[in-house]
Amino acid sequence: MQYSVSVRFSSDGQLEVIGDQIAISIKSQPERGRANKELLKKLAAHFGVSEERVRIVSGLTSRKKIVEVL
Q: Per-residue confidence at 18, pLDDT binned at 50, 70, 90?
């Protein structure tokens, strides 16, 4: 399943799913892939899968991403 993800930087850690759209808040800054790693970890926990089953399809350097959950 593919989802369109919008990333915000905040300390509250909110995650909101509406259809195939996800809005998520993360704490990590976008340096050295830290924000992407936190994003994948949170999405894996939300969907109850391992981190290896979640990948960023497009938007590695953007706040708007396409993410695939296997």
A: confident
Name the pTM for this structure: 0.85
CA atoms within 13 A on the CB side of 67: 30
Produce one character per residue of 15-52: b if its CB has 16 or more CB atoms within 10 Å, e if not: eeeeeeebebbbeeebeeeebbebbbebbbeeeeeeee
Q: Token pair of 10, please?
A: 């905040």
Rounded Cα–Cα distance for residues 25 and 9 (Å): 5
Domains annotated for the chain, with CATH where assigned, are 2-69 (3.30.1200.10)
